[in-house]
Amino acid sequence: MAAPANPEDPFLVVEDLTVKFPTHDGLVQAVTDLSFTVERGKTLGIVGESGSGKSVSSMAVLGLHDPKHTRLSGSIRVDGQEIIGASEDRMRKIRGNSVAMIFQDALTALHPFYTIGDQISEGYRIHHRVSKADAKKRAIEMLDRVGIPQANRRVDDYPHQFSGGMRQRAMIAMALVNDPQLLLADEPTTALDVTVQAQILDLLQDLQREFNSAVIIITHDLGVVAELADSTMVMYGGRAVEYGATREILTHPEMPYTWGLLGSIPDVSTDSEARLVPIPGNPPSLLNPPSGCSFHPRCPHVDKVPGDLCRTTLPDLVPGDRGDNHVKRCHLANPGEIYAEEVLPEIAPDLIDPETGEMIPELAAVDPDEV
Amino acid sequence: MTGFIVRRILSSILVVILTSMFVFVLFFKGLGDSPAVNYCEKLGPGKCTTAKLDSIKHQMGFDRSLASNYATWAKGIFVGRQNVYVDGKVYDCPAPCLGISIMTGNTVTHDLKQKYPATMTLALGAATMYLTLGVLLGALAAKWRGTSADRLLVGSSLIVSSIPYYLVALLAWIYLSLQLKIFPETGYYPISQNPIKTIQWMMLPWLVLGLYSCTSYARFTRGQMAETLSEDYIRTAQAKGVRNNKVLFKHALRAAIVPVITIFGLDFATLLAGTIFTERIFSIDGIGNWGLTALSTPIDINVVSATVLVSAVLVVVANLLVDILYSFIDPRVSIA
Which residues of B touch A114 (CB under 8 A)? Predict the structure, then answer.
């Protein structure tokens, strides 16, 4: 049996999580040695491009990988309880109950043939012994809470009768129906247009404050992270490459891949000369990962590292210049200088003080809620 | 909704009328005046004079146009016909009149009423069996996909499907009925008289037609289920904590069943064709057997066209029902 949960401990602790999928072509190593924690009431943003392992690791937290086709190792503890190797019965009690998930595209993630109300109350009745009528009342209450107008009428609608934003709200209502203590949001706003995106993110924040739940938000959009996340983990090729407080990561990134992500955000709010700088190359193969640092084939700063270190040796995830709470996986000895002198002028010239050539910290992306 | 149903019913009626025209024209033209000649020659040597033949042809309407003959026949369905001449005798044929059967001398409608319960019993029993069994086996194969149980189910269903149906039915009759006497009697026993006996006699035909046809439904359902199981909403259901069997039989099957029902409507004609073999081999006194007997010389044209017409109506009605049912099982289909 699991040790009784210590309320001081983080709600979710992931240690050395490795996820491998055996395929006909070989072993796909989707996630390697991933460790992170999320505390109650806090939000972790996981950022990375497609195939970086962000969804795979969140699915692992719910035990949603088919055990026949997956090899899991490491440790995932939800409220002190070990998830890896847990029985299907125990996982089912956790799923949708203390840990819930919001999926990316609500149109495909909701069942087309059942009403919104049925789908929400089904989730409620799995974990609560209540009548159908009571579960429906709860569904209406939840729809109301996420801001669906005339919830008592819309509860009998089918997903296709909802707009994209309303479907995502319904999806959130469904995830929150059992007051989960941990919410996994997998690209919750990617399929939505910008104005609706902002509404949904605000809603998530409000609900998180109300329930004091831990939230993991998975995204490829650093803007979403800047708005919501207390801490941020950047993933590349199945590994964490940079991890720390969101403000730290956004203002003093120390890993060239994070620089690349920052450079590829379009900024329409200023008429700056900032160029949209895409990251060259393609995501690494997880079947035959590159030797050494998996980002080296795309990294423009490889030659700044003495010897052939980037190609031969995988850098450790270690604290950089900014203290123990900001770790990065990179061989560069002076990332802060390179960022300020080479990267920033190109991706965000308006952040540089023209007089001194120094970065103006106040203008950098800052989350107002950041402690 | 009502508008849609009315439109679909009207187009179904059009299809039935066109089918009846084709059937009538093809057989009437194809046979020519041979029914008259056949009867005339039966009168005996020397008795079939040219004048006699002409009189028979006149009585049977062969001197009138094709259109006029069709009109007489079609009108008879609604108002009935008097003085219908068949082989030297004159009959009365009340509405709905489909003509007089040469084989029995009864009105075709009268014989049809006697034959259809057997066919309906066979078709409904077999269809229930192959739909439930096919969908169930398909769902289980999808659940076990990749395992040896799945391969066994799919493999054996492929083997069964590749044997012609009449061979399966014939072998089943020879071994299970004739040799082993597990089902000593087959046929149709009127359901109103002794339902137990009806079931006893119909069991083997139901099993043979049901088990044979369920194989294709099992494979189709398996394919649909496998596709559905990879949908995002299945993962959502799992993430909610729904039990695996409920994910499979509620969430996945609910979506996978829709195309299966569509196929069932389209496949209805195959079911009717299957009943012809089944009725013949298991000596069931139904429409299929009746239509087959009517094809021996001299062809009982009224019976043949009646059976074709009835089959066409059944196929059209089945498709109409599936279309209407579709709007209930798939809420995204709105028929206004």
Answer: 254
